[in-house]
C-alpha cells in the first residue's frame, strides 16, 4: 500500500504498513547489500556482526572478528583506532580516520563513523560503525595536488618562455625580476595605442624599452621614428617635429617638409628627453596629443596623424610640474602608462648576463676570443654603475679593445674601478629604499634559485632547504623562477666564472 505524502495522518492514526517492514532475515540481507562496510557492536564494544563490505575493506574474515571486542582489534594492532570504542567513550556519533596496520590490507586508509544507538534505559545498546575505504580518495587528492603543482610549474614555464621570446625578439637581456617586470609591461602596453612615459636614469635602457614596445606592437610594420628633444635647438626641433610649409622661413625647402609626427604615420614616435622640451613646444605637443592633428610651421591646414607616442626622460617630471617647468596637462597626457626602469645597481642580477651578452657581441664584432677573469666579474658586480648599462657596455668594449691578452684581469679595469673593493663588495646590495620584507624575499629567491640549479629538482631542493616541495613550487611561481630542468640546461654563469665565449 502506498501512503500519499502529506495526507495528514497523526501519530495515533499511523496505518500499519506490514509490506514495508523488514523481517530480521531481510534486514540482514539489507545490511549485507550495503556497499559501505558495517561493523556492529553492543554497548560494551563486543562485535555482533560485520557485513561482506567490511570484510572486503578490512581484509578480515567475519569468523575472526565476531566474538572479539572492538578494543581487541586495536590491541592486536589490526588498525590504529576503533570508531566503536571512541563513539562509546564519547557517547555520540564520531568520525575518525584510521589505517590498517596488519593483514592483507595493511596501509589502507579508512574513514569510520561510529553511531551509538540508545536503549530505553539510557544506555548504549548498539554501535553501528560505517566504514569506507578512502585510500582511493586520498590517492586522488594527492594526484590532484600534484597536478595542481605541475600546472603551476607549467604556467611559470610558459611565462618564462614568453619572456624568452620577448628578449630574443627585442635582443635584450633580462634576468632580474625588475627587468622582467619592465619587459612584461612593455609587452602588455604594446597591445594598445596608449601613450607611454618611460623614466629612468641615463643609460638604463629607456630606448631599448621603446624599441621593444614598437616591435611587439601591431605597428611594427610601420616606422619607428626617434627624436632626442634635448639635443636639437628649439626652433629646429619645432620644424622637425611638426614639419613646415613651403617658404615658412629662410632656408626652408621649397616644397616644405613633413614633420616627425607625419613620418611616424601608422608607426611609433619616440620622444626621448621629453623633459627638455621648451614650454612653447610643450603646448604644441599637447595639442597634437589631444587632437591627433598637426599644423606645420607656417601652415594653417590641420593634418591628421596616426602615430603612437612613446616618451622618455631621465628627469623628474613630477617635480618639474611642481616647479612650473613642465605643463601638468601634458604630463598627464604623456603619463597614461608609465614604465620606470630601475638603475643597474638596483638589479645587479642582470650584470652577469649583460657581461656575457656584450662580451659575445664585441668578441664577434672584432673577431676576438677574449674573456674576463673571475676577479673582473666580481668587480663588475660590486661597482655602482652610475652610467648604467651604457657604461657597462663601454667599459667592456674598452677593456677588450685595449687589452692584448686573451684573459682580462683586474689591472685592466678603468682607473675609477681600480683600488680596494667597497666594504659591501660580494654582499647582497640592496636598493636604497628597500623594505625588510623585500630584502628577505631577495635572499629567499637567490637561495631557491641556487638550490634548484644545484640539485636539479624541486623535491631535492626542498630537502636541501628543509621545506615542503609544495612550498618550493609556490615560491618558484611567486618569484617566477624557471623549472630546474630549464635552469640545468643553461648552466649558471657562475659555473664558468671566466665567461669564456
Ligand atoms: N636590457 C638590455 N639588454 C641589452 N642591452 C641593453 C639593455 N638595456 C640597455 N641596453 C644597452 O645599453 C645602452 C643604453 O641603453 P639606452 O640607450 O636604451 O638607454 P637610455 O636610458 O635610453 O639612455 P639615455 O637616457 O641616455 O637616452 C644601449 O647600447 C642598449 O643597447
TrEMBL record:
One of its GO terms (molecular function) is DNA binding. Keywords: Aromatic hydrocarbons catabolism, ATP-binding, DNA-binding, Nucleotide-binding, Transcription, Transcription regulation. Residues 23-82 form the PAS domain. Transmembrane segments: none annotated. The keyword Oxidoreductase does not apply. Pfam families: AAA_lid_14 (PF25601), HTH_50 (PF18024), PAS_9 (PF13426), Sigma54_activat (PF00158). Residues 172-401 form the Sigma-54 factor interaction domain. The keyword Nucleotide-binding applies. SUPFAM superfamilies: Homeodomain-like (SSF46689), P-loop containing nucleoside triphosphate hydrolases (SSF52540), PYP-like sensor domain (PAS domain) (SSF55785). CDD domains: AAA, PAS. It comes from the Bacteria. GO terms for biological process: regulation of DNA-templated transcription. Residues 1-21 are annotated as: Disordered. This is HTH-type transcriptional regulatory protein TyrR. It comes from Syntrophobacter fumaroxidans (strain DSM 10017 / MPOB).
